[in-house]
Amino acid sequence: MHANWSGRARPIVHRGAFALALIILASSLGASAQQAGKVYRIGFLGGASAGDVPLPSLREGLRELGYVQGKNVAFEYRFAEDKNERLPGLAAELVRSKVDVILPHGSPATRAAKQATNTIPIVMVGAGDPVGTGFVVSLARPGGNVTGLSTISAGLAAKRLELLKGAVPKLSRVAVLWNPANPSGRPQLKETEAAARSLDIETQLVEVRDPKELESAFSAMLKARAGAFTVIADPLFLSQRRRIADLGMTKGLPSVFARNENVEAGGLMSYGPTLADLFRHAAVYVDKILKGAKPEDLPVEEPTRMHLVINQKTAKTFSVSCQAICF
Fold this sequence. Notes:
alpha/beta; Rossmann fold; 2 domains; six-stranded mixed beta sheet; 13 helices; 42% helix
């Protein structure tokens, strides 16, 4: 507190008051030093495994904002290893460990975190439909303890099918690989089906909740004579990207994905934001919250940069011309 003195008036300080002021000042300095030396604890909740998400991008984003692991920030990691039924228990563990912020990746993990706490701030990364799934009241004013970054996956599903049609002009039947356990999957599925009707393409819905079901899923695609497949964004399909790419190649089925990591693993193409960008930007939310901002006051952001990524080797295998899909 500062006092402004004007005119000829002079402050009168009694010895007792002066001593009290020194005590208050010392206490204040001690509290500031303690705050400066605080180690913030960030809990990360993922449905896949550590190697399936760009955690280095998150840590890099935090370093740019002054948070150094082991100095003023520490991480608690929990991974469900493709078993979504484990997410509620893992989220509860993070709550019990009293982390300052929880970062869930994907809609299933966000749902588990939200159900586990309504007090610890949650910064979701890559939730497909935050409003439709009930994570937030609105994008502009989340209204609770959840905010963060949406991938607007449902808004891109139609574009992905258009790109796949451009790559395979004679495509008349497409398989749609999706995980019914993901709450953000249905909006994407609905849009994909609407786009298919406008493109005069029949859809074959193929459900996969567990990695063990992938082999039979691709067999079903061939039995139904699908000419290609599109993948609804889900952490499960990200963690199983190499196996999905291999199965697609083995069965002779071109593919389109939401994540560029799937293309790097051998899939044909992807269209959407990159997880690395999302994770790096999530650090900005964490920083604001640790500095006192409330999640309910931080609007949910949607990515503005989309990336079309094509695996040239896979394109060559399927005799797909880049010009056919680069429009």
